[in-house]
Amino acid sequence: MEKLHQLTINTLKERGVTIESIAEIVYDLQKDYTDNLTIEYCQETILSVLKKREVIYAILVGIALDKGAEQGLFTKEINEVILDDNSLFGIDEILALSIINVYGSIALTNFGYVDKIKPFIIGKLNRLGEQKKQCTTFLDDLVAAIAAASASKMAHDRLKKEDNV
Amino acid sequence: MEKLHQLTINTLKERGVTIESIAEIVYDLQKDYTDNLTIEYCQETILSVLKKREVIYAILVGIALDKGAEQGLFTKEINEVILDDNSLFGIDEILALSIINVYGSIALTNFGYVDKIKPFIIGKLNRLGEQKKQCTTFLDDLVAAIAAASASKMAHDRLKKEDNV
Amino acid sequence: MEKLHQLTINTLKERGVTIESIAEIVYDLQKDYTDNLTIEYCQETILSVLKKREVIYAILVGIALDKGAEQGLFTKEINEVILDDNSLFGIDEILALSIINVYGSIALTNFGYVDKIKPFIIGKLNRLGEQKKQCTTFLDDLVAAIAAASASKMAHDRLKKEDNV
Amino acid sequence: MEKLHQLTINTLKERGVTIESIAEIVYDLQKDYTDNLTIEYCQETILSVLKKREVIYAILVGIALDKGAEQGLFTKEINEVILDDNSLFGIDEILALSIINVYGSIALTNFGYVDKIKPFIIGKLNRLGEQKKQCTTFLDDLVAAIAAASASKMAHDRLKKEDNV
Question: Whole domain around residue A96: which residue ranges?
């Protein structure tokens, strides 16, 4: 899985998404709940989320669908449906959910929030998609899910620490 | 089911949640997407959501748990866990999810957003819960789910109409 | 959506799955619960399930991934992961779930059962996959989901009829 | 959580479900996949599943609802709906799902299978429910979920070991 972990990081970067850009979202989600939160801690948490099998597969498959549609690899109708990013398509959110499910209900709330307000890199991806410069149908939901899962992991870790005190 | 539909509306009211108070949230969620949106249309949509079997059962069971914990009907530990409303409890979000699942991925996004920013009646319920004046552990998530489901239903109905044009 | 409905039926056929072959599974799942069950009624129900937006998209995307992996359209690692059909991959079940979620908890039970015992066409697809004659990683789960959803639809329709009596 | 873990084991026992009776199901699910499988290993795995926060809460809340309905603690309509165990109720499966989600897609398949064939203790609970001797509306689904989650945990642990070889 270590090889696939690296491939996931590289594939995200190739599509315009760095760990730093996801960390901005996570920092914003958690800054009111964690004292002395650093951007480095956000990045570390994101990297640990990106080691999970379910997360890796969802990202790699989702980006393969975005790229495949851009390159016209699928049947005409499938290419169109993916490129179109209609809000009733739903398969993009389903892949995002497979990331979120692993991280419990806090992840779900954070995902919905981030998917709605589209902060930082997610807003940028969304605009690239609307301008038809890049197919980001799956990518924007996946990034929202990674950020939400990472913020949720930080909340869980913090609550567990408090439990033990 | 008609009898249970009425019971659901009455039980919500008894716990401090009117259709009007949910309509404020739905209006706010949809006002940027629907021309000439009226509060009456929001109320109608909420009422139609409250006719669904899955929605009715989730609300009635969730409120029975809130009330049961208030009245100390369960084992001591269960009463405490429900009254505590710890963010790692998760069963409250699970019941909310059973409402949302029926309304697709737009409902999920709206739920997360509403659950995060806690607008109108949801903020009020949350404060009542924190002040230990009323157990709202399940109720606030259920109301967020009803609002999110209703906004999603309006979005679906609108998109279907556009599809046909 | 009518065009996509036809495309879905044709794409399933092209991959070796006819409506008749799915009807055998549905008949078997429902024969103990429905009096005078006919194979024609099973086929009709399957066709109505295949008209649902969520169902159509899940099938078309899943089969596009199976075919893409066969043809080596994706990055080497993605092709391998899809062709391998490891039980920890999970994205195939996630797509199947997006079909099942729409049809409630009876669909879930039926899906698990069918996915476990692999009756009729599902067993055949599974063997084709194991013999590396066809990539059926997504297809076998999708067919199980269509069958489970159809059996669930028949159960719901029957229970609703009984409710009204 | 250690106290709640013990409470969960005791509450299951009080309702007629021992770790041994769940182990019979798990053994049956896994005997074809694991060499030299012992009933002791099944019991150990079940106990480790019963330590998970999500699992504990789902079991305690579900059994509180079964017992509450038996004792007539809730509104008349709620008591009736829970005692009735109609297949369209769905909240019982929702609580079961919150256990299963944590253990991935193998757990889902196992759950559906077990919920359908109702082996060992699950069949017994189901008959007690049908004979109105005990309300087992939530309990039978919860036991199916514990068994499915445990079998899935064993499969994951085995596959991880193979990965490392």
Answer: 2-164
